[in-house]
Amino acid sequence: LDEELAIGTIAARRRGFERAMAGVDAAPLIRMLPTRRYENAGSQWRAQEGYRACLEALGGDIDFDAVLCGDDFFALGAMRALAESGFRVPDDVRIVGYGDLPFAEWLTPSLSSVALPVRLIGELAVAHVLRRIAGSTVGASHRLIRAELVVRASSA
Prior knowledge:
Layout: H1 8-22, E1 30-32, H2 47-58, E2 66-68, H3 72-84, E3 94-99, E4 112-115, H4 118-133, E5 148-150
Parallel strand pairs: 1-2, 2-3, 3-4
Antiparallel strand pairs: 4-5
Helix pairs in contact: 2-3
């Protein structure tokens, strides 16, 4: 999340994180990995990009003891980069992903992640499309939906 993207949800995740950390005393040194989107077919989020970004961060001048990723695929790549660089998760560096994808609980250590209410998001999207098909002239709707942090071993 180091660079601003034209993806509103990523920018909102960053703002939410910064608000949450604003009042925390002795907050950990957290590195936010940039998340990139691809236009071609297939998976939009790639573990190898998280891997590359984490290796770049490890080679920089800033020490950190936690990594926050914009999605679980980036966290997966970051976990591998950390392990190959001799860091133990969560003993040396904690890591959190976003999306709570099914593989998150199967990793070793299991990945802490922000769970999205995917079903609710889908239901709201379908309802909006149906209103538009029925002739509603209401413009784009905006609704903030609360996500839930699922704490697992990677951030213990």
